[in-house]
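Our consortium's second objective concerns turning raw sequence data into structural hypotheses that experimental partners can test. To show how far this objective has progressed, the report includes one record in full. It was chosen at random from the queue rather than selected for favorable results. The single chain below, 398 residues long, was entered without modification.
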Amino acid sequence: MKTTMERRQFLTASLAGLGGIVFASDLVRGKAAQAASRHAEDFFFVQLSDTHWGFKNPAINPDFAGTLPKAIAAINAWPQKPDFVVFTGDLTHTTDDDKERRARLAGFRELSQGLKVATIKYLPGEHDAALDKGAAYRDLLGAPRYAFDHKGVHFIALDNVSDPTAHLGDEQLRWLADDLKKQKHATRIVVLTHRPLFDLAPDWDWTTPDGGKAVELLMPFESVTVLYGHIHQVNHHQTGHIAHHAANGMMYPLPAPHAVPKKAPIPWDPAHPYQGLGYRQIDTHARQTELALTELLVGQAKDPPAAEQVVKVTAKKFEYSPSVITLKRGVPAVLQLTSLDRQHGFDCPALKLHAEINPGKVTQVKFTPDKVGEFPFHCDVFCGSGHEQMEGTIKVAE
């Protein structure tokens, strides 16, 4: 099994022609979920959204026939392949002609199947499914909703577009409730959907009218992340402990919510070609408390910046969590230290790291591991009779 940091090394060193922005999303929260994650495996997958195959407007995107093939070629060139690729809706551009709709879906399917990955997952968008209630989509690409398990994570794909009013509907909500009844509250869950499940901008049609009911069903679970498309831009939102992350579109960007009076595609900028167009790699770490979302931009001429290894560490009497920190030699690291009760210390003499950890504050320790090995750390601020057991290890691998 490839390690998390091997995957990150691949990401930072091998994606020539793409730009990377890393965002850490909290996935595992409670102790039960952390325990469940220990039985999972590291893996990564890719999310593409809003490819709008069949769109033809050179003022908006003069490379309308080339943007998606460029992304596919880039992914195929990666030395490590994602476990799967998921397209989160608006695979094709809308048309009133049923025959043309089917032709576009068939053309998209043929093009996407050029991806050199074992599995491709699809979801419809309203451009694919709203006008015929998903009939052509189901014929050509299969079920618009489904669930599957992969290496310790439960994935749920929801359809909030086949209903022209953008409702999930009572029947689908019952299906979701039945699926969740089979899961433990510590199960790690990733929801895939096209529209946001919350009211981002209802007047711009950036909502799911009954999405709150799905969120309510998901609330009892400790580890939930929602990945969606539809708004053609990266957006991060939190509903309680549930994180929602929108992805860039592949055909044209849209303005930020209510940034302009009227929603409309942002015209092509010859000075900044492919601006706002991209897709996303998601690293799922079995033994860490975060998803790593890396935004990859199409057509950028420089290598992506090095991704930092970000690890959140909490301290309390008389333990650190995590007590074992796994890092990659030569890759910049950031330890985000905070206390849950009182002042503690963090001292790793072998790596010359030292910091005070205070409650209610985050102390960042930045460094680049330059040697391989196991390096103990401990609390150097006396915190009670169990103080001497408050220790951990930084493991640095090639």
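The partners drew two points from this record. Confidence is low (pLDDT under 50) at residues 1-19, 301-305. Residues 238 and 244 are 6 Å apart (CA to CA). Both points have been shared with the crystallography group to help prioritize constructs.
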